[in-house]
């Protein structure tokens, strides 16, 4: 079964992922951060888990990626 969600960013610091999540939500895009509890509670698993994952619905992935790219280009992340 194919997931209806797409990972659009992976971050070693879950706080950054949440800041970006709230930015996406301010634009009307629902977003979720996964694997954050594993990283926060057992930091040595961060590399094994791959970091906190920022996810959106597949239908919103293109627009969300454009927003994240504009933030990166502005040097705000």
Question: How would you portray this structure in words?
Answer:
- With 77 residues, the chain is of the alpha+beta class.
- The protein has one domain (5-73).
- 47% of the residues lie in helices and 22% in strands.
- It has 4 helices and 3 strands, in the order E-H-E-H-H-E-H.
- It has a 3-stranded antiparallel beta sheet.
- The protein is globular and about 35 Å long.
- The model has no long low-confidence stretch (mean pLDDT 85).
Quick structural summary:
This protein is an alpha+beta fold. Helices cover 47% and strands 22% of the residues.
* Overall structural domain count: 1
Instruction: List the uncertain runs.
Output: none
The whole-number mean of residue pLDDT values reads 85
Mind describing the biggest β-sheet? Answer: 3 strands, antiparallel
SSE blueprint and pairings:
Layout: E1 5-11, H1 14-26, E2 31-34, H2 36-41, H3 46-49, E3 52-57, H4 61-73
Antiparallel strand pairs: 1-3, 2-3
Which descriptors apply to this entry?
alpha+beta, 3 strands, 77 residues, 3-stranded antiparallel sheet
